[in-house]
Amino acid sequence: MIEMQTNLGTITIELDFENTPITAKNFQRYVDEGFYDGTIFHRVIPGFMIQGGGFEADLVQKASHEEIENEADKGGKNIRGSLAMARTSDPHSATSQFFINTVDNKFLDYTSKSPDGWGYCVFGQVIEGMDVVDKIAKAPTTFSGGHNDVPVEDIIIERVTSVTESSTVNS
Q1: Which CATH number goes with the domain that contains 75?
Q2: Domain assignment of residue 156, yes or no
Q3: Exposure on the CB side of residue 96, measured as CA atoms within 13 A
Q4: Confidence check: pLDDT of 155 > 90
Q5: pLDDT in tens, 62-106
Q6: DSSP string, the chain
Q7: Cα 91 to Cα 110: distance, rounded to the nearest angstrom
Q8: Domain, as residue range, for 133
Q9: Is residue 171 included in any domain, yes or no?
């Protein structure tokens, strides 16, 4: 379980290590390193998704680790509350940036191992805090620093940590 504390509330996420081990381990690595602490949700599109994990305030991009293999063919669907990797037009270009789907986005799902069919790898699910996701999705946005859909006021990812639940501990 991952706990993402933002200046608008806390989002709890369960990662899918079973189906998307490369992607889940990549995200976990960034969490363990404290990489996401102090980053912002830099792209907010109502009725679509919220994106973060790559920029600090004032749209200063953070240096990330190497790109990872796209596991969208093994992951879940881009449904409301799912956590997926952001990438460029290159299907295998994901690094640290992620997004949370605020609605079902079937058009982002894997369809084939072709440039247009790879889709976006879902590697986790919000299990608590969709009210916070929805609050973020309603933030007013603007064009800033060469980017569209940037929240007018910073939405800060203050701290991201791994948490354990007593109900999941094997005895």
Answers
A1: 2.40.100.10
A2: yes
A3: 23
A4: yes
A5: 999 999 999 999 999 999 999 999 999 999 999 999 999 999 999
A6: -EEEEETTEEEEEEE-TTT-HHHHHHHHHHHHHTTTTTEEEEEEETTTEEEEEEEEGGGEEPP----B---TTTSB---TTEEEE---SSTT-B-S-EEEESS--GGGS---SSTTT----EEEEEEE-HHHHHHHHTS-EEEETTEEEEESS--EEEEEEE---GGG---
A7: 10
A8: 2-164
A9: no
Distance CA 37, CA 16 (A): 21
Instruction: Report yes or no on 169 lying in a domain.
Output: no
pLDDT tens string 94-143: 999 999 999 999 999 999 999 899 999 999 999 999 999 999 999 999 99
**CB count, 10 Å around CB of 100?**
26
Does 165 score more than 90 pLDDT? no
